[in-house]
Structure formats: C-alpha cells, structure tokens
Amino acid sequence: MAQPVGPRAGVPSPAIALMDVILALATASNGSIPLNSGVGPQAGAFPWLSLIVLLPAAAALLMPLLPGDGDDPRAPRALALGTLLLDLALMLWVFSRHFDGSLSELQLVERVSWVPILHLEWSLGADGLSAPLVVLSGLVTLLAVAASWSIKSKTRLYFGLLLLQATAQAMVFLSQDFLLFFLAWELELVPVYLLIAIWGGPQRQYAATKFILYTATASLLILLSGLAIAFSGDTFTLNLSELAARSPGGTFGLLCYLGFLIGFGVKLPIFPLHTWLPDAHGEANAPVSMLLAGVLLKMGGYALLRFNVQMLPQVHQILAPALIVLGIVNIIWGALNAFAQDNVKRRIACSSVSHMGFVLLGIGAIDALGMSGAMLQMISHGLIAAAMFFITGVFYERTKTLSIPNMGGLAKVLPITFAFFLASSLASLALPGMSGFISEITVFLGVTSNNDFTVPFRVITVVLAAIGLVLTPVYLLSLCRRVFFGPRIPALAEVGDMKPRELLIGLSLLVPTLVIGFWPRVAINLYEASTNALANEVANQGRVALAGITGLG
Which burial class, exposed, middle or buried, applies to 126 when counting CB atoms under 10 A from its CB (0-12, 13-18, 19+)? Predict the structure, then answer.
C-alpha cells in the first residue's frame, strides 16, 4: 500500500481516516455529497452536528500546546470554558433554528463513509430522544468545568479530558451507526476512569477500577448484541434505522434484548448492577460527580429507548412488566440504601439509583405517557443531581469532610449554601412546582392509564413505587438536618459562603428545574413526537398474551 506523502506523511492511519471524514463533510456541505437528508428546516445546509461533536475534541488537541508546566489552571480552564460555552450556544441555536420538535423523524442527518472495510460510517442525526439530552450534556459539562476552580495539578490533562468527554457524550446521543455509537460509548469511559483515578479521593484507584470493570465488561454484551442484529438480515448493516426496521423477535430477539438490557443497565444503573456508582461518587470530585449523575446515567436510559424499545419492540412488549419490577426494586432499594450512608455523596448516589428507577418504570409502561415521563425524568434528574453534587462540593471545599456525623451547624455559617442545597433536595423529593414532581407524576399516570395491565398489577406497582416517594423526603430532609443544623463545628466560624461564580452555577441548574416544573412544555415539545411514535411502533407490533406470567392481560 502506498505511503502518504506531503502534509499527511507520518500521520497515523486513524487520524488520516478522520481527516478524510472531515474533508468529506466539508465537501458535502457544498452540495457534492448528499450529506444532510433530514427533514428539519434548512436541512442539508451545513454539518452542524459534526461541528457540535468535534469542537470540544479539537480544543482538547490544543491543550498540550498551552504554555506553562501543567499546574497553572488559567489557560486550560479558559480554553475549556470558552469552547464548551461556544458549543452549548451552538447546540441551542441549531436545535432552535434547524430542528422541528413536532417531527418524529431523524433530522440534520449526516452520513459519510469513514472506514468502508468495516462498514463504519460517520453517521449523525437528531430526533426527540437525542436533542434534549445533547443540550443537557452540554450544559452540565460546561458547569462542571466552571466548578473545577480548585484543580491545581495536571490542569491541561484534566480540562483536556473534560473536553474529550464532551465529544464522547454528544456522539453517543447523536450517532446513527452502531459501530460509531459503540466507539463513542467506549471513548467516554476513558476520561471518567482517569478523572476518578487521578483527582479522586483516598480510595480513588479502587473506585475507578471497579467503574471500568463493570462498564467495560457490560460493553461486550452491547457489542455482541448489536453485531448479532447487524448480521441477522439478508445484508450486513450498522445503520441504526435499518437495524430497527428488522425488529427481530423470538429467542434470538430475546437474547439480544437481554444483552442490551444488562449492558446498558450497568450505566443506568439497574439493581444489582449498581454497586459501582456509590463508590465512584464517593471518590470522584464534585465536577466529575456532576457528569456521572447528570449525563452518564442518562446514556443508559437513552440507550434502552433507542435499542431495547425501538429496535426490539416485540420483545419489549413481553418484558415490559419485568422492567417495571426492576424499576420498583431500584426505587425502594436505592432509597433504603440511602439511609445507611454516612457520606453525603454516597447518600446522594443511592438517591440517584432510586430516581433512575422511575425511568425504568416509564420505559416499562409501554405507552406514550410513560415514555414521556421517562424522558422528562432523565432531564429533570440530570439537572437536580448535578445541582446536589455541585453544592456538596461547595461545602466540602469549606469543611474538608463529607462525613455526616462530623458535620453540623452549617446553616448559620453558610446560609446561602444551605438554601441552595435545600432547594435541590426539595426538587429531588418531587415538590410540586419543581421538575421532579412533573416527571414522576407523568410516569405514574403512564403506568395507571395503560389498560393492557391488569388492575391488581397497576395498583401494586403504584403502591410500591409510592413507598420510594415517601422514603425520599425522609432521607433527604434528615440529611439536611444533620448537616446544616445541630451543634456548630468550631473550625467553621470563619469560612465564607458561596461566591458569585458558585451562585451562577447553582442558579444555572436550579432555574431550569423551576421552569420545567411550572412550564413542562419547554422540555416536552422537544421529544413528544418521538416518544409518541415510539409507543405507536411498539403497539403496532401486536399484543402478546401474557396472562399468568407477568400480569398483562
């Protein structure tokens, strides 16, 4: 094979392949390749999604070129903040101008052959399932960088990893090629592992290793299930839309569904695959915990909708009640485990396990209302959990401890911090007027309004899930009482309250929860057409008689 010469000489072959894709995208934007075939406004004008995905990675490549010894945070932090702020602005502009939420089809589609021998395509597209989560990931990642003011060592590496993580996250939500999706899914594991292992707490190596072992092992099941479906038809394809059109059932479809469920369930996380999460949160610093809770867990929920529901609707009809059972276990188990935690972040992590159970509940409800509630719960929990972990980081920087028995009296010393933490706790326990209330009540309505479930099944589901709603205020309000009231810690007499930068970060997360709580259509309009179409597709696959097995009648 001829060796590259000229400007590309000495460039590794993967980099050459990526350069070819970028050149193809640039050529396509001039009309020589039918790149964007989306149906949204001005589709085909420019590869906007590629720009959103590749912009943070391009900035990450510049990190080693910045002056300094790597311990001066100013230049790396400024580059990361500026890039992610521009990327978020680009997301908001593209989805407000070139994305039509009333359409369920993929929009802004970009499809260019990347590695033909592997059938790998650079294929991106957005619909209602992906667009709101892309914006959520952009916002949370930007705020995680803004919350990283205390990072003083290996700063170029730290902020470079956050930028790389931003690219991987966006690619997971926008990929329309299975192999590209899988590469992005694996890529986002690396920055998280390093961020925990290098900048985490005393047990960081254990937590990081446990995280990578759980998630990497689960990825094998994802790869095997996806490739099995890709090979199952008359022709081999990795395009997600073409794979979804196959809708395999029977034993083969069941095995693929279970492979996806376990693989994506680790990330959600589903009991009993959740044990990596408290350890990861307990050792990660606050900005990384914001990413874990605000974005990474949502990848699991998104993938279940994209693969288990959209690609395997026949099997999903059969196993939907099992997902509801798993969701109830998540809700109750996570809430009960939260009581046993004496570390603030570990308690919030167990709370996340409980709240993600409502996502499983909504997905298992099958109908459009339940799936809408699952999407809204992912958006809501992403904002609320990120806020709680951020504010936890704020008072950790003042107290240097997260041990609940060793804290007390912070409300008098840090009144603004207390107000923000209480507000985020109220949002988490589904106070009316907050986004958590709307999302969880929508999930409940989705389960109760589905007449395919028997009345006893619906009643038992609602009663058991309601136990989690009762437990949530107990463990969250008791956390507030023990941390912010009681005897004051003498060493905290002179600590300062939240700074303007920290106030802005907190408001950027809590204001959207209020807006969605009072005006949920802001979020629902983005994904409603897609969740309705997804529910209709599941219904069109036909009902399966499940009496005596799952309670479906």
Answer: buried
The residues, any chain, with a CB within 8 Å of residue 3's CB and separated by 6 or more, are: 9
DSSP state, residue 305: I
Indicate the residue type of 357. G
Let me know the angle formed at the C-alpha of 297 by 453 and 318, rounded to the nearest 5 degrees.
25
- The rounded distance, in Å, linking the Cα atoms of 139 and 134 is 9
- Which one-letter DSSP state was computed for residue 18? H
Cis ω on the peptide bond leading into residue 321 (within 30° of 0)?
no
Q: What tens-digit pLDDT sequence spans the chain (553 residues)? A: 334 434 344 434 444 444 454 445 444 444 333 444 444 434 446 899 999 999 999 999 999 998 866 778 889 999 999 999 999 999 999 999 999 999 999 999 999 988 888 888 999 999 999 999 999 999 999 999 999 998 988 999 999 999 999 999 999 999 999 999 999 999 999 999 999 999 998 999 999 999 999 999 999 999 999 999 999 888 899 999 999 988 888 899 999 999 999 999 999 999 899 999 999 999 999 999 999 999 999 999 999 999 999 999 999 999 999 999 999 999 999 999 999 899 999 999 999 999 999 999 999 998 899 999 999 999 999 999 999 999 999 988 888 888 888 888 888 888 999 999 999 999 999 899 999 999 999 999 999 888 888 899 999 999 999 888 889 999 999 999 988 887 776 555 567 889 999 999 999 999 999 999 999 999 999 999 999 999 998 888 755 434 334 444 3
CA angle 491–145–404, rounded 5-degree value: 35
Distance CA 11, CA 76 (A): 26
Q: Is the pTM of this model over 0.85?
A: yes
- Give the chain's end-to-end CA distance (angstroms, integer): 63
State the residue for tokens 């996570």.
334
Best CA proximity match to 429, nearest among 522, 513, 525, 342? 513
The owner of tokens 């929508």 is 442
Which tokens hold the place of 507? 């408001």
